[in-house]
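Ticket #4471: structure output looks truncated?

Reporter: J.K.
Steps to reproduce: submitted the chain below (158 residues) through the standard prediction queue, then opened the result file.
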Amino acid sequence: MVKTQMNHGLTDVDYMTRALALADDAQRSGEVPVGALIVLNQQIIAEGFNQPVSSHDPTAHAEIVALRRAGVARHTYRLTGATLYVTLEPCAMCMAAMVHARIARVVFGAWDARQGAAGSAFDLTHSRALNHSVDAFGGVLADECGARLRVFFESKRG
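Returned output as attached by the reporter:
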């Protein structure tokens, strides 16, 4: 399910296009090409891309980098009402962080059948065990997002 039009004129596709540019930044840095950004009140409040290799930090996924920056920018870890855009379906760690941050919705590009925690491998978006739900919309620019990942991993294997 994909919501395509936001009330301010920019679409999920517009924001995902920006996330793809951030994924390109990750790839240029030698990281897995995943980019993320957070939108609140029709404004991008934070951006991030994968950095675990360069930062020597296994938690430095694009989503976590963006959440940390948004928290600093907003002077709070609660991001109620915000939307997080990311080029790859979030893993369990990232979904849990979104729950704690009270992200309202996550919009992602490529599905991750092995580690995706927004409906692929498992689903933490509306878990009754958690105290907050995150609406998830997958498949936005999925082909473009998936292609970047395929090319990256093919180049690593080749």
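Triage note (M.O.): checked the attachment and the full token line is present. The radius of gyration is 14 Å.
Status: closed, working as intended.
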